[in-house]
Amino acid sequence: MPYFPQGMINVSDQARDQVMHLMREDGFNPESDFVRVGVKSGGCSGLSYLLEFDKQMHQEDKLFEDNQVKIIVNKRSLLYLLGTTLEYSGGLNGKGFVFQNPNAQRTCGCGESFAL
Fold first, then answer.
1. In the beta sheet, which residues pair with residue 88?
2. What DSSP state is assigned to residue 81?
């Protein structure tokens, strides 16, 4: 499996810890399974993020690894996500994963959708 350079998609320490915890809790192995990150149509800004665990990599997927997390992204989503950092926020406004995407020109208040 070809790996792509670090910096393409980054994972903060807090997001790494939460991803590994949730993967184990859901029966996934962080050492061999993947976090699938993608973009789909929808959301209040036009595009929304997809984040799920996966045991299989498909032919159209690209593989990244940052901060001990294996990330797969399909080719269609890749250009939207280059340079994105996956963060985890556990503040008073709620807990959840947050995408810090330098490509987004507009985001919605919930942080789950964006526009280019």
1. 97
2. H
